[in-house]
Design brief:
Elements (H helix, E strand, L loop, with lengths): L1 H27 L6 H33 L11 H16 L4 H4 L1 H27 L4 H23 L4 H8 L11 H22 L2 H4 L3 H6 L4 H23 L5 H13 L4 H26 L6 H23 L1
Protein backbone atom coordinates (compact mmCIF):
# COMPACT_ATOMS: atom_id res chain seq x y z
CA UNK A 1 0.00 0.00 0.00
CA UNK A 2 2.83 2.34 0.92
CA UNK A 3 4.64 1.65 -2.37
CA UNK A 4 1.43 2.36 -4.34
CA UNK A 5 0.93 5.65 -2.47
CA UNK A 6 4.52 6.64 -3.20
CA UNK A 7 4.19 5.71 -6.88
CA UNK A 8 1.03 7.81 -7.26
CA UNK A 9 2.72 10.73 -5.52
CA UNK A 10 5.52 10.58 -8.07
CA UNK A 11 2.99 10.39 -10.90
CA UNK A 12 1.18 13.44 -9.53
CA UNK A 13 4.50 15.26 -9.30
CA UNK A 14 5.39 14.45 -12.91
CA UNK A 15 1.96 15.53 -14.20
CA UNK A 16 2.01 18.78 -12.21
CA UNK A 17 5.54 19.49 -13.46
CA UNK A 18 4.38 18.84 -17.05
CA UNK A 19 1.40 21.18 -16.57
CA UNK A 20 3.58 23.95 -15.08
CA UNK A 21 6.18 23.51 -17.86
CA UNK A 22 3.56 23.68 -20.62
CA UNK A 23 1.87 26.71 -19.03
CA UNK A 24 5.28 28.43 -18.74
CA UNK A 25 6.09 27.71 -22.38
CA UNK A 26 2.64 28.89 -23.44
CA UNK A 27 3.04 32.19 -21.58
CA UNK A 28 6.53 33.13 -22.80
CA UNK A 29 7.00 31.54 -26.24
CA UNK A 30 7.56 34.06 -29.04
CA UNK A 31 6.61 36.94 -26.73
CA UNK A 32 9.22 39.34 -28.11
CA UNK A 33 9.48 41.07 -24.74
CA UNK A 34 6.00 42.61 -24.94
CA UNK A 35 5.04 41.27 -21.52
CA UNK A 36 2.44 43.94 -20.68
CA UNK A 37 0.49 43.09 -23.84
CA UNK A 38 1.01 39.35 -24.07
CA UNK A 39 0.87 38.05 -20.50
CA UNK A 40 -2.67 39.29 -19.63
CA UNK A 41 -4.10 37.84 -22.85
CA UNK A 42 -2.35 34.50 -22.56
CA UNK A 43 -3.15 34.45 -18.83
CA UNK A 44 -6.86 34.67 -19.66
CA UNK A 45 -6.52 31.67 -21.98
CA UNK A 46 -4.76 29.67 -19.27
CA UNK A 47 -7.49 30.52 -16.76
CA UNK A 48 -10.18 29.51 -19.29
CA UNK A 49 -8.32 26.24 -19.95
CA UNK A 50 -8.00 25.41 -16.24
CA UNK A 51 -11.68 26.16 -15.56
CA UNK A 52 -12.88 24.19 -18.58
CA UNK A 53 -10.58 21.25 -17.91
CA UNK A 54 -11.57 21.11 -14.24
CA UNK A 55 -15.31 21.23 -15.04
CA UNK A 56 -15.16 18.52 -17.69
CA UNK A 57 -12.81 16.18 -15.80
CA UNK A 58 -14.67 16.57 -12.48
CA UNK A 59 -18.13 16.10 -13.99
CA UNK A 60 -17.10 13.12 -16.15
CA UNK A 61 -15.42 11.31 -13.24
CA UNK A 62 -18.60 11.65 -11.15
CA UNK A 63 -20.87 10.76 -14.07
CA UNK A 64 -18.97 7.55 -14.87
CA UNK A 65 -19.12 6.50 -11.22
CA UNK A 66 -22.88 7.12 -11.03
CA UNK A 67 -23.56 5.23 -14.26
CA UNK A 68 -20.87 2.62 -13.50
CA UNK A 69 -19.67 2.92 -17.10
CA UNK A 70 -16.26 4.19 -18.24
CA UNK A 71 -17.20 4.92 -21.86
CA UNK A 72 -20.02 7.38 -21.06
CA UNK A 73 -19.71 11.15 -20.69
CA UNK A 74 -22.27 13.78 -19.58
CA UNK A 75 -22.54 14.80 -23.25
CA UNK A 76 -24.88 11.83 -23.77
CA UNK A 77 -27.65 13.82 -22.06
CA UNK A 78 -27.81 16.28 -24.96
CA UNK A 79 -26.51 19.46 -23.32
CA UNK A 80 -24.01 20.11 -26.13
CA UNK A 81 -26.77 19.69 -28.74
CA UNK A 82 -29.06 22.06 -26.83
CA UNK A 83 -26.28 24.67 -26.74
CA UNK A 84 -25.85 24.45 -30.52
CA UNK A 85 -29.63 24.55 -31.03
CA UNK A 86 -29.83 27.84 -29.13
CA UNK A 87 -26.93 29.35 -31.11
CA UNK A 88 -28.41 28.21 -34.42
CA UNK A 89 -31.89 29.40 -33.48
CA UNK A 90 -30.56 32.85 -32.54
CA UNK A 91 -28.82 33.23 -35.91
CA UNK A 92 -31.73 31.70 -37.85
CA UNK A 93 -34.37 34.01 -36.32
CA UNK A 94 -32.48 37.22 -35.47
CA UNK A 95 -29.29 37.04 -37.56
CA UNK A 96 -25.63 36.93 -36.53
CA UNK A 97 -25.60 40.64 -35.65
CA UNK A 98 -28.38 40.41 -33.04
CA UNK A 99 -27.47 41.20 -29.44
CA UNK A 100 -28.37 37.68 -28.29
CA UNK A 101 -25.53 36.33 -30.46
CA UNK A 102 -23.00 39.18 -30.39
CA UNK A 103 -23.17 40.09 -26.68
CA UNK A 104 -21.02 37.42 -25.00
CA UNK A 105 -22.36 38.10 -21.50
CA UNK A 106 -25.98 37.78 -22.61
CA UNK A 107 -25.23 34.75 -24.78
CA UNK A 108 -23.41 33.05 -21.89
CA UNK A 109 -26.19 33.80 -19.39
CA UNK A 110 -28.97 32.55 -21.69
CA UNK A 111 -26.98 29.43 -22.67
CA UNK A 112 -26.26 28.45 -19.06
CA UNK A 113 -29.86 29.21 -18.06
CA UNK A 114 -31.33 27.13 -20.90
CA UNK A 115 -29.04 24.14 -20.35
CA UNK A 116 -29.49 24.21 -16.57
CA UNK A 117 -33.28 24.49 -16.97
CA UNK A 118 -33.30 21.60 -19.43
CA UNK A 119 -31.16 19.49 -17.11
CA UNK A 120 -33.38 20.32 -14.14
CA UNK A 121 -36.61 19.50 -16.00
CA UNK A 122 -35.18 16.27 -17.40
CA UNK A 123 -33.88 15.30 -13.99
CA UNK A 124 -37.08 16.15 -12.09
CA UNK A 125 -39.42 14.61 -14.66
CA UNK A 126 -37.56 11.35 -15.03
CA UNK A 127 -36.86 10.79 -11.36
CA UNK A 128 -40.44 11.65 -10.45
CA UNK A 129 -41.87 9.30 -13.06
CA UNK A 130 -39.48 6.45 -12.37
CA UNK A 131 -38.93 7.20 -8.68
CA UNK A 132 -35.21 7.05 -9.32
CA UNK A 133 -35.22 3.35 -10.07
CA UNK A 134 -33.62 3.45 -13.50
CA UNK A 135 -30.93 5.98 -14.25
CA UNK A 136 -30.38 4.47 -17.72
CA UNK A 137 -33.87 5.59 -18.78
CA UNK A 138 -32.77 9.14 -17.95
CA UNK A 139 -29.70 8.70 -20.16
CA UNK A 140 -31.77 7.20 -22.98
CA UNK A 141 -34.25 10.09 -22.96
CA UNK A 142 -31.33 12.55 -22.87
CA UNK A 143 -29.73 10.80 -25.84
CA UNK A 144 -32.96 10.92 -27.88
CA UNK A 145 -33.58 14.58 -27.05
CA UNK A 146 -29.95 15.38 -27.94
CA UNK A 147 -30.44 13.74 -31.35
CA UNK A 148 -33.65 15.75 -31.82
CA UNK A 149 -31.86 19.02 -30.96
CA UNK A 150 -29.03 18.15 -33.35
CA UNK A 151 -31.48 17.41 -36.18
CA UNK A 152 -33.31 20.70 -35.60
CA UNK A 153 -29.98 22.58 -35.66
CA UNK A 154 -28.98 20.87 -38.92
CA UNK A 155 -32.34 21.77 -40.47
CA UNK A 156 -31.90 25.47 -39.67
CA UNK A 157 -28.22 25.47 -40.70
CA UNK A 158 -29.03 24.42 -44.28
CA UNK A 159 -31.59 27.25 -44.56
CA UNK A 160 -29.54 30.20 -43.30
CA UNK A 161 -27.33 32.41 -45.41
CA UNK A 162 -23.83 30.91 -46.03
CA UNK A 163 -22.19 34.01 -44.55
CA UNK A 164 -24.32 33.63 -41.42
CA UNK A 165 -23.33 29.95 -41.27
CA UNK A 166 -19.64 30.89 -41.30
CA UNK A 167 -20.23 33.08 -38.24
CA UNK A 168 -22.21 30.29 -36.58
CA UNK A 169 -19.45 27.79 -37.34
CA UNK A 170 -17.25 29.54 -34.77
CA UNK A 171 -19.66 28.35 -32.04
CA UNK A 172 -19.46 24.70 -33.12
CA UNK A 173 -15.92 24.19 -31.86
CA UNK A 174 -14.41 25.08 -28.51
CA UNK A 175 -12.14 28.11 -28.61
CA UNK A 176 -10.02 29.81 -25.98
CA UNK A 177 -9.06 32.73 -28.19
CA UNK A 178 -11.82 35.22 -27.44
CA UNK A 179 -12.97 34.41 -23.92
CA UNK A 180 -14.47 37.43 -22.16
CA UNK A 181 -12.77 38.34 -18.86
CA UNK A 182 -16.18 39.00 -17.27
CA UNK A 183 -17.28 35.47 -18.18
CA UNK A 184 -14.15 34.01 -16.60
CA UNK A 185 -14.81 35.73 -13.28
CA UNK A 186 -18.51 34.78 -13.24
CA UNK A 187 -17.71 31.19 -14.25
CA UNK A 188 -14.98 30.88 -11.63
CA UNK A 189 -17.29 32.09 -8.84
CA UNK A 190 -20.10 29.77 -9.99
CA UNK A 191 -17.75 26.76 -10.26
CA UNK A 192 -16.29 27.35 -6.79
CA UNK A 193 -19.78 27.56 -5.26
CA UNK A 194 -20.88 24.36 -7.02
CA UNK A 195 -17.75 22.48 -5.97
CA UNK A 196 -18.24 23.57 -2.36
CA UNK A 197 -21.82 22.27 -2.53
CA UNK A 198 -20.65 19.00 -4.13
CA UNK A 199 -18.13 18.37 -1.35
CA UNK A 200 -20.98 17.11 0.85
CA UNK A 201 -21.65 14.25 -1.57
CA UNK A 202 -18.33 13.40 -3.26
CA UNK A 203 -17.13 11.59 -0.13
CA UNK A 204 -19.63 8.84 -1.02
CA UNK A 205 -18.21 8.25 -4.53
CA UNK A 206 -15.91 5.41 -3.45
CA UNK A 207 -18.93 3.56 -2.04
CA UNK A 208 -21.16 4.44 -5.02
CA UNK A 209 -18.58 2.89 -7.36
CA UNK A 210 -19.34 -0.49 -5.73
CA UNK A 211 -22.84 -0.37 -7.23
CA UNK A 212 -26.29 0.60 -6.00
CA UNK A 213 -26.99 -2.56 -3.99
CA UNK A 214 -23.70 -2.45 -2.11
CA UNK A 215 -24.04 1.29 -1.46
CA UNK A 216 -27.56 0.87 -0.06
CA UNK A 217 -26.46 -2.07 2.12
CA UNK A 218 -23.63 0.07 3.47
CA UNK A 219 -26.12 2.72 4.59
CA UNK A 220 -25.77 5.28 1.80
CA UNK A 221 -28.92 7.24 0.88
CA UNK A 222 -28.42 6.34 -2.79
CA UNK A 223 -31.29 8.25 -4.45
CA UNK A 224 -30.72 11.44 -2.51
CA UNK A 225 -26.97 11.58 -3.22
CA UNK A 226 -27.14 10.47 -6.86
CA UNK A 227 -29.82 13.06 -7.72
CA UNK A 228 -27.73 15.90 -6.30
CA UNK A 229 -24.51 14.68 -7.91
CA UNK A 230 -26.29 14.50 -11.27
CA UNK A 231 -27.40 18.11 -10.89
CA UNK A 232 -23.83 19.14 -10.07
CA UNK A 233 -22.61 17.32 -13.22
CA UNK A 234 -25.22 18.97 -15.44
CA UNK A 235 -24.55 22.50 -14.18
CA UNK A 236 -20.75 22.11 -14.54
CA UNK A 237 -21.14 20.84 -18.11
CA UNK A 238 -23.50 23.73 -18.88
CA UNK A 239 -20.98 26.31 -17.64
CA UNK A 240 -17.99 24.83 -19.48
CA UNK A 241 -19.94 24.48 -22.74
CA UNK A 242 -21.31 28.03 -22.59
CA UNK A 243 -17.85 29.37 -21.74
CA UNK A 244 -15.76 27.96 -24.61
CA UNK A 245 -18.00 25.61 -26.64
CA UNK A 246 -18.47 21.83 -26.82
CA UNK A 247 -15.49 19.45 -26.45
CA UNK A 248 -16.90 15.99 -26.97
CA UNK A 249 -14.20 13.48 -26.01
CA UNK A 250 -12.08 15.38 -23.47
CA UNK A 251 -13.80 13.91 -20.39
CA UNK A 252 -13.66 10.36 -21.74
CA UNK A 253 -9.97 10.76 -22.56
CA UNK A 254 -8.72 12.28 -19.30
CA UNK A 255 -10.72 10.16 -16.84
CA UNK A 256 -9.75 6.88 -18.51
CA UNK A 257 -6.12 8.00 -18.68
CA UNK A 258 -6.31 8.76 -14.94
CA UNK A 259 -7.59 5.22 -14.33
CA UNK A 260 -4.72 3.75 -16.36
CA UNK A 261 -2.00 5.96 -14.89
CA UNK A 262 -2.92 5.83 -11.19
CA UNK A 263 -4.47 2.33 -11.03
CA UNK A 264 -6.59 3.48 -8.09
CA UNK A 265 -10.31 3.41 -7.27
CA UNK A 266 -10.07 6.27 -4.77
CA UNK A 267 -11.91 9.24 -6.22
CA UNK A 268 -9.68 11.83 -4.59
CA UNK A 269 -6.85 10.41 -6.69
CA UNK A 270 -8.92 9.94 -9.86
CA UNK A 271 -10.60 13.37 -9.83
CA UNK A 272 -7.42 15.35 -9.14
CA UNK A 273 -5.49 13.21 -11.62
CA UNK A 274 -8.18 13.76 -14.28
CA UNK A 275 -8.12 17.53 -13.72
CA UNK A 276 -4.33 17.76 -14.10
CA UNK A 277 -4.37 15.53 -17.22
CA UNK A 278 -7.13 17.74 -18.67
CA UNK A 279 -5.01 20.87 -18.12
CA UNK A 280 -1.96 19.20 -19.71
CA UNK A 281 -4.06 18.04 -22.69
CA UNK A 282 -5.71 21.40 -23.29
CA UNK A 283 -2.55 23.52 -22.86
CA UNK A 284 -0.59 21.11 -25.07
CA UNK A 285 -3.39 21.09 -27.64
CA UNK A 286 -3.63 24.89 -27.65
CA UNK A 287 0.16 25.15 -28.13
CA UNK A 288 -0.06 22.82 -31.14
CA UNK A 289 -2.97 24.85 -32.56
CA UNK A 290 -1.11 28.16 -32.24
CA UNK A 291 2.51 27.17 -33.01
CA UNK A 292 2.19 24.20 -35.37
CA UNK A 293 -1.11 24.76 -37.21
CA UNK A 294 -1.01 28.59 -36.82
CA UNK A 295 -4.72 28.74 -35.88
CA UNK A 296 -5.76 26.72 -38.95
CA UNK A 297 -7.75 24.44 -36.65
CA UNK A 298 -9.12 24.44 -33.08
CA UNK A 299 -8.12 22.56 -29.96
CA UNK A 300 -11.47 20.74 -29.89
CA UNK A 301 -10.71 19.17 -33.29
CA UNK A 302 -7.41 17.79 -31.99
CA UNK A 303 -8.93 16.61 -28.68
CA UNK A 304 -11.88 14.98 -30.47
CA UNK A 305 -9.56 13.23 -32.95
CA UNK A 306 -7.32 11.82 -30.21
CA UNK A 307 -10.32 11.08 -27.97
CA UNK A 308 -12.17 9.35 -30.82
CA UNK A 309 -9.24 7.04 -31.50
CA UNK A 310 -8.95 6.34 -27.77
CA UNK A 311 -12.71 5.62 -27.60
CA UNK A 312 -12.36 2.97 -30.34
CA UNK A 313 -9.43 1.48 -28.41
CA UNK A 314 -11.60 1.27 -25.27
CA UNK A 315 -14.41 -0.41 -27.21
CA UNK A 316 -12.03 -3.00 -28.67
CA UNK A 317 -10.48 -3.58 -25.26
CA UNK A 318 -13.88 -4.06 -23.59
CA UNK A 319 -15.00 -6.30 -26.45
CA UNK A 320 -12.09 -8.68 -25.75
CA UNK A 321 -13.05 -8.88 -22.09
CA UNK A 322 -16.66 -9.93 -22.87
Amino acid sequence: MRMKYTANTWKFGILIAAAVLLIGVFLVIQSGGNWDYILPRRGKKILAIVLTGACIAYSTAIFQTITNNRILTPGIMGLDSLYMLFQTFAVFVFGSTHISFVNKNLNFAVSVLLMSLFALLLHQFMFRRERGRNIYLLLLVGLILGTLFQSMSSFMEVLIDPNEFLVLQGKMFASFNNVNTDLLIISMVAIILILLYAQRFTKYLDVLSLGKDHAVNLGVDYQYIVKRLLLVVMVLVSISTALVGPIMFLGLLVVNLAHQIFRSHRHKVLIWGSVIIAVVSLVGGQLIVERVFTFATTVSVIINFVGGVYFIYLLLKENKSW
